[in-house]
Automatic annotation (TrEMBL):
GO biological process, alphabetically ordered: carbohydrate metabolic process
Native source species: Actinokineospora terrae
Protein name (record): DUF1416 domain-containing protein
InterPro entries with a match to the protein in the record: DUF1416, Ig-like_fold
């Protein structure tokens, strides 16, 4: 359980979400080939400003609903940190993989 209030993530996309009409950043945090549970995953906008945070699930999964644009996804965990740049130019399911270590 997170002490920061960030919601834990699940695997399934909610039934009311149409990935054809929304920008969905859907990803996994790993260390090597192992999923990382309990990582704080942060979404930063193009200027580096904090936008949102979630906690990765037991399977390392996380998800953000965002506007089209350039984003940075950063994962912070006791085993290490990692980040990736994401270009989400329009609606759809944008897969994101973040490695920590």
């Amino acid at each position: 359980m997170s002490s920061c209030g960030a919601p834990e993530q699940g695997i399934a996309l909610p039934a009311n979400v149409d990935a054809g009409k929304e920008v969905v950043l859907d990803g996994k945090v790993t260390s090597g080939d192992t999923p990382v549970e309990g990582a704080f995953v942060r979404l930063l906008d193009a200027s580096g400003e904090f936008t949102a945070e979630v906690v990765s699930s037991a399977g390392g999964d996380f998800r953000f609903f965002a506007a089209p644009g350039e984003w940075t996804v950063r994962a912070l965990h006791r085993s290490g940190n990692g980040e990736v740049k994401v270009s989400a130019d329009g609606p759809g399911l944008h897969k994101v993989a973040v490695s920590v270590g």
